[in-house]
Amino acid sequence: MNLSEIQTFLAIIETGSLVRASERLNVTQSTVTARLKSLEAELGQTLIIRNKSGAATTASGQRLKRYAETMLDLWQQARRDTGLPDGVSGVFNIGCHPDLWQGMGKAIFSSLHKAHPELALSIWHGTGAELQRWQADGRIDMAIGYRGATSEGQVLFDLGADTRVCVSTEADSPIRFNPGYVYVEAGEDFGRWHAATYADAGTAKLSFGTAALGLAHVLQSGGSAYLPHRMVARHLQRGRLFHLSDAPPYLRKAFAVVNQAALGDIDISLHLPPAES
Q1: Among 112, 122, 101, 187, which Cα is nearest to 148's?
Q2: By residue range, what is the domain housing residue 12?
Q3: Is residue 207 over pLDDT 90?
């Protein structure tokens, strides 16, 4: 198994055709076929089935896909790490949940960048599941998210509560039965809390997967939503949004999980914002 075979296998899946894969990779179709056959022979499994419409992935091919993507990502990361320019001693990869970038994530990134100019920093946005997988695979050195658990060789830092408050573009918006209310995803615990707290309010007609998308919609189209206070604070100060104080707040704990081996001389605690209770 080599990288060219892995790249070819993924190109076939992404393009849906051996012909289009050869065009993307700028090689002949016979080369694509030879690489695929070599990979299948080494694994002892059929990975791709050719048909009239192009190419279909077998069950074995689907299982290999995730590992192939990880191997290719790690190789690309290794090339970056070993090809560092003069004055750069290493790479520190940070994964951040989209809802935590504004404020917490950006503050940590800026502090690290200022204190450690010898480091090349990279930022990846991902869901909780993606951050956990990337960290296990070694693609990121630190995960900023809502997962308060660690594996062997990892260190956990408490970032405090990420407080969500109900805000609206109208100061007198109703707390319940508000047709302009949008539901913004904030994890399973929030979903259960929301269902219990607003059991009599019906289901929101609109929902968003991240706070940034929910905030953008509310500011553009009007309405109300539960959003992180740090994201809406300046809009509250300017009068673009109003805090519906009768609506109870929701506290969601945030954490930074760091791979111990990646820390080196970095004292990560110096770059974390003060935890809020």
Answers
A1: 187
A2: 3-82
A3: yes
